[in-house]
Amino acid sequence: MKKYFNIAIFTVIGLTITSCSDFLNTSSPSIVDRDFVFSNPVTAQAALVGAYEDWRDAAQNDFFGDGLFYGSEVTGSDIERHPEAFSNQPGRHYPECLYQNGTYAGNYALLSYMKDPGHYANIYEAIGKANFIIGSIEATSTFESMISSGEPSTMGQLYGEAVTIRACCYRELIKYFGDVPFQTVVGAKSTGLSSRDSIYDAIIKQLITVEPIMFRVSAEKNKFSRTAVQALIGRLCLEAGGYQVRRSDLGASFYVDGNGKVLTFEKLGTPNNNAEYGRRSDWKDLYAIAKTYLKLCIDNSGAAVFHETDPRSTESNGRQYNNPYQYFFQQMNNKVYADESIYEYAMTQGSSGSNNSRTYSMGRVSSGGSSNAFPCKSYGQARINPAYFYGVFSPNDKRRDVSVAVTGSDGNGGEKLIPFAPGSVANGGGLTLNKWDECRMKTPYINAQRKAGINGPYIRLAEVYLAYAEACALTNDEANAKVYLNKIRERAFPAGQANTDAFITASGGLFKAVIQERGFEFAGEGDRRWTLIRTGLLPEAIRAIKTLTKEMLDGIAANGYYTFANGNTIPAYIWTKMVDAKAEKGFRLTTQCPAGQENDPILYPGWRGQNDNWRAIATSANITPNANFNDAKTNVAIKGLFSYIDPASPEAAALEADGYTKQDWGKTLVTYYDEYYTYLFYDYDYVKAPIYLWPFTGNVLATGGFANGYGFKQEN
Length: 716
Description:
Serine Threonine Protein Phosphatase 5, Tetratricopeptide repeat, 16 strands
């Protein structure tokens, strides 16, 4: 039996591996009895491993960690931007900037960034395996009774996980490609495009069916659960009912709902490249479903916990925390499932052949080498628009310094100011995402880059709270919307400073306040772009950041500084010096700056510095640091980051006498005016339908039997 069991599992896991030319043809070569595999939870669970692995691989490398997510989501919003010169990365920057108002779509070299069939084919591999598991369980004699029971069960949980994997795959496909083939039956080759709206309706219905027969999330959060399904139903309903760009060249009858009914749309702006920007006229029905399931998730969130206070205490060396928002990321940096997470896809530290985007692509940058560095190289694709950091984030918001860092690591144990000049690692590119940092890991992996082992945070409670607030705000339930908006804000500000009512007024109403708050909560994580697209707020947000950026650059050029409405000033120059923070403070890695110490050049801004003892980590890893390793003056002290110091003033002279050096800061932004302003959503006119999708590659078109839209080319 053991031999037969192993053959069965091997066959099931490999069922849908196909060549690039027929990746949508998932006929089963299985020679084993499906009833054997799917009548036993142990064998069924083993079969599910392959589907999870394909989903995890596609999520990490194609759709949520790197890949298309890396190319446009973490670089293309009013918050996030790219690090390198625009001309250096056209394969990323043109999709990021909406293809220069759509005019560049036809010139875009399809394979300049995407692989053929690459991202698209990879996720269909996961769909194929999920389809096999779903179909096999549906064919068992106990399936109907399992569904009709409405109660959680082991097989119900496994079936629900497979359904959820498939739903997540289609969610990502729609987000990046629009309408795609909808394949649910193993062995049936899918050709032609299906209406994304019918796909949304189908997968939402399937998730509603499996939700009651699954178990709630446990402490181990790398499997989908009832809690995750409730959150995902809410997410999908908001997306299905939101604004998207749809093709007009497919005909008026193409876009149908899950029952085949032709849909009508509420449209924004003007057409662009035979595409229109709008939302389904029945969007409120979807928002009502979202409210129901998001509230179910909130009311019984299983092992997921939203911390409103920081459970950490002051350390014996005097280091203080007092920031529950940062606690989530610290748990992730420690390679444990974060309390607030509902689902994370798991990454293994140091795994051979693995590619871990956190911290390499989306973390605090490091100029270290590819191996044996402190920490190793972190490229830093996810950068932050300086006008957003200075002019939109409140100085009192505890999320600001957790989200954005002005310094990175030199890779030899020292901190380094990041110049605004275009570049990568800590040598350039400007403000970096700060939430994931190998300096903060208890056991950082210093042997090689891209192997930190930090999981992918796919669903967490903060999103559920804000999604529920959004659904309430747009369905005339303002009281509940304010309750959950306020929960998020009160966690982020010192007591009594959330000022939610004033924030709602300043934002232009409750709905816009919720979306703005979501930007603060997920700043730099790649959530913002899609949120602005689906809410119809993209044109408004682009105009606002472009205007604010121009005012900032013009002000620096004219006066040597610019002061924003929130009181922050960005100067042309700042002053820095290297200091021994361990000797002065008792630690090198800083945390939340204690109240009243905002003038301390080491502690403010917070959440930076270096690992307290890189040398001990090197010793435990049996690695000898090189001659440039820094064991003393490891931290950057900064003066004038948020205020203007006249370079000719006695204050500047005193700083320089004290060992500080004047550094170009805002001056560099003016030098690279085009990079920070002109190419920021290059030529977008705020009216035409935004072309935010990616083209299908030549192999996909040939095998799928359909054509590109949105102005994209039909060949490589």
